[in-house]
Design goal:
single chain; Rossmann fold; 14 helices; BDH-like; binds fe (ii) ion; 395 residues; Dehydroquinate synthase-like, alpha domain
């Protein structure tokens, strides 16, 4: 195991109907909230109304900032920051999926620390600005995917430069996450599938990129992958099953909380490779992961074959005893599983032209630089040529 420090400071509040407690909870953290959420006019409208009513009932003043996009744009978040400061807000209530919660973290921390939200993201060799603190954040997830509701990470897209990157700050842990399965049942089929694959991608990134070993982390990850697989099958048969939504919510939260990587933190090459798909083509992130995971697993299987083989045996029923042979079976098993849930996709299915592959690979190695030129970090540096090959295999 490698040394680590881990904390989970977010108070996790779970249960049907608990959104009605938003006002009482907010009262503990401030006087004027910004509710940050998606544009009105969709299935979230009654949920936004409920949060507003709860705040009114608790005597909390608020403004509602609507219009945060999936793949939240730094330009939109900067507008929210301006409004947050102009209105004298002192906390953010993030009501939405990972995009809204990520965006809200930048609103809370940038309003406190100054500058623009893009100053703080990791970008190639640039040294990102550091926060000095953040206003309190309360997360109310309406999607189970990113785990953002209980972690300190956040991803932003710059729509001018077509770049997408991330940052992490301890200041940005939500104080409270209100996870109400009543809200999660409104999620349509497509987003539900994308979300399940995103959870899967989080569970396998560190598992397959760390050179250190931690059986605890492996077992806890495998338990979540098996839970995810079972509940993925169940949810696509009944999108309104609240028990199943609750199980998926836990997979989302703990699958990207750090507990799944204790003692063997690695890196996140599959997320780096997916970045241009959502940054340039605005593809939902989970859908992009669906596309890049199988070819990555195939191309990199000989890098850490014992880890690929362990995952294949423990979660995908592979019985082959030779590690390399078992490792090479993992990609096919994952494709089989994605097809069984009708989730498997290629670049042409989402209309991404193959003549952009070279540029997309360039973006990956420029923004997420590996230890050698023209590489990005992975279990070994992943070269630009290999990233091109992964995209070619996605066609
Ligand atoms: Fe992700």
């Amino acid at each position: 195991m490698t040394p680590f420090q881990w904390n989970f400071p977010t108070k996790l509040t779970y249960g049907e109907g608990r959104i009605s407690e938003a006002g009482a909870i907010a009262k503990e953290y401030g006087k004027k909230a910004m509710i940050a959420t998606y544009a009105r006019g969709g299935f979230l409208d009654p949920i936004i109304d409920k949060v507003e009513s709860s705040l009114k009932a608790a005597g909390i003043d608020f403004v509602t900032f609507t219009g945060i996009e999936p793949n939240p744009r730094s330009q939109t978040i900067d507008k929210a920051i301006e409004q947050f400061k102009a209105e004298g807000c002192d906390m953010v209530i993030a009501l939405g999926g990972g995009s809204v919660i990520d965006g809200s973290k930048y609103i809370a921390a940038t309003s406190f620390s100054g500058g623009g939200c893009w100053d703080y993201v990791v970008l190639g060799d640039r040294k990102p600005r550091e926060y000095t603190g953040a206003y309190p954040i309360i997360s109310i997830p309406t999607v189970s995917a990113s785990g953002s509701e209980c972690n300190a990470g956040g991803v932003l897209t710059n729509s001018e430069t077509k770049e997408k990157s991330f940052s992490r700050s301890e200041y940005r842990f939500p104080k409270v996450a209100i996870v109400d399965p009543d809200l999660l049942t409104s999620l349509p089929m497509g987003v539900t599938k994308d979300s399940c694959v995103d959870i899967f991608s989080h569970l396998i990134e560190h598992y397959l990129s760390s050179h250190a070993e931690s059986e605890f982390a492996d077992r806890i990850t495998e338990a979540m992958i098996l839970t995810l697989k079972d509940n993925f099958d169940l949810i696509i048969n009944n999108l309104e099953d609240k028990e199943v939504r609750g199980q998926l919510a836990l997979c989302s939260i703990f699958g990207w909380s750090g507990i799944q990587a204790l003692g063997r933190t690695g890196c996140i090459p599959m997320h780096s490779v997916e970045m241009p798909l959502s940054a340039i083509y605005d593809l939902p992130h989970g859908r992009g992961m669906t596309i890049v995971i199988p070819p990555y697993l195939e191309l990199m299987a000989d890098t850490l074959p014992h880890r690929w083989a362990k995952l294949a045996r423990r979660c995908f029923g592979v019985t082959e005893s030779d590690d390399l042979k078992a490792a090479k079976m993992l990609s096919g098993k994952v494709v089989e599983w994605l097809k069984s849930t009708d989730s498997y996709l290629t670049l042409s299915d989402v209309n991404i032209p193959s003549d952009q592959i070279e540029k997309m690979a360039d973006d990956v190695v420029r923004m997420f630089k590996g230890p050698e030129p023209d590489t990005t970090p992975g279990p070994r540096p992943v070269t630009k040529a290999e990233i091109v090959k992964i995209f070619e295999m996605c066609k």
